[in-house]
Amino acid sequence: MAKTNNYPVILVHGFLCWGSESNICRFLPCFGMWNGNARDAIMEEGHVCYTPHIGPFTGMWDRACILYAMIKGGRVDFGKVHSEKNGHERYGETFPGYVKDWGELDENGKIKKIILMGHSFGGPTTRTLIHLLAEGDEEERAGTPAGELSPLFEGGKANWVHTEVTFAATHNGVTLPDAARPLVAPMAEALFAVGNLGSGTWFSRFYDFRLEWFGFTSKEKHIPFSWDKIKNLAHKEQDNIYWELSTTGGSESLKNTKVYDNIYYFSYYGRRTRRKGTLEYPSADIWLPLRLFSPFECLYSDADHKGEEWQANDGIVNVAAAHHPAGQPFVEYSTLASDADIKPGIWHVMPQEWKDHTSYMGVGEKHDDYQNYFKEIIHRIDTLPSID
């Protein structure tokens, strides 16, 4: 089929991970690690591709605001109402913009769009960005003085995105934070403390926590240690990545999102656990560090999250969490006669893959296989007509 678009691609990382603005990416690209580079693979197919660093511990709304500013250019505006409600600064960094003319008309009168791809928590991040582009935010519109409102909160921009692709996304929250609930806040406190102590040092430039608006991290200057600020964020429910990763927080944070009939949607997900009788257990070939986390999900069960679909996982994300966003329309890609049957406004769920959570980052993958994996995805998107 003929190529129909050449839109820029934005690859969005998830929890704990990093993008090109963090120095770690010079040595270890998040999308590829030591076995390739998805950005290079996509660019070889004629697309400009960016891998923004939006913070390893940043909450969903804040990530979407940072992502918008990094793509379009300008100062990050977290929103007057949101910032006051969640007790942090309203404004963040100023960025030159990857795609400054994003959303403008080209020489043929067509809207200049982008393609969004998100791994893990990057999936909910891209969904949140699309929601804000399309719907804006009523509270921000009502509570922000005239002339101060960020264009992101105006709405009416669903046609700025051509395709959304997610990999092992935490669409419906995951049971790992639920199963390990007593450990979540202490772990968050410890990690945030590291970020505070490392502020203004080589460490903060190598691995940027990007939580400056909460007042205890900085890449450029040392911030005095503040246990109160650390505990405040670690124990928050709203605007907290740990809560948003849980099944309750994930569902609550994304309950208003929906699909749009001018955007194409694809969900890729994997599994690296096996079932024996009524028990689920990690496969022997799952990446070693994930063997510490996978059993929590294999064994966890509650009234709403039980059975094989929730116990089966990729080491971090449950199969049921990654398959597709609950309540939104979907179709199994394997049931389509050909790619000509791909339609906008519905999730196309790709066949389950024998991958763990880090496989989509290149861990355990062969270099050529990893590169070709992303090239195949781009080839498919290239044939999809643009709908304004």
Walk me through what this model shows.
The chain is an alpha/beta fold and 388 residues long. The chain has a single domain (9-381), classed as Rossmann fold (3-Layer(aba) Sandwich). The protein has helices at 38-44, 60-72, 80-86, 122-135, 138-143, 176-179, 181-197, 202-206, 227-234, 241-245, 247-253, 294-299, 308-311, 319-323, 367-382, and strands at 9-12, 49-50, 74-77, 91-95, 114-119, 161-167, 264-268, 273-276, 279-282, 330-332, 347-349. α1 links the parallel β1 (9-12) and β2 (49-50). α1 packs across α15 and α7 (181-197) packs antiparallel against α9. The chain is globular, with a radius of gyration of 20 Å.
Oligomer: single chain
The biggest beta sheet is recorded as:
7 strands, parallel
* SSE pattern, N- to C-terminal: EHEHEHEEHHEHHHHHHEEEHHHEEH
Helical content stands at 25-40%
> What strand order characterises the main sheet?
2-1-5-6-7-11-10
The amount of beta strand, in percent, is 5-15%
Tell me, briefly, the overall form. Answer: globular
CATH topology: Rossmann fold
Count of the domains: 1
User: Which structural class should the secondary elements be placed in?
Assistant: alpha/beta
Q: Whole-number average pLDDT?
A: 96
Any idea what the radius of gyration is? 20 Å
Distance between the termini: 21 Å
> Can you say what the CATH homologous superfamily is?
Alpha/Beta hydrolase fold, catalytic domain
CATH architecture: 3-Layer(aba) Sandwich
Which parts are unreliable, with pLDDT below 50 for 5 consecutive residues or more?
A: none
Q: Please work out how many helical segments DSSP would assign.
A: 15
CATH class: Alpha Beta
How many DSSP-defined strands? 11
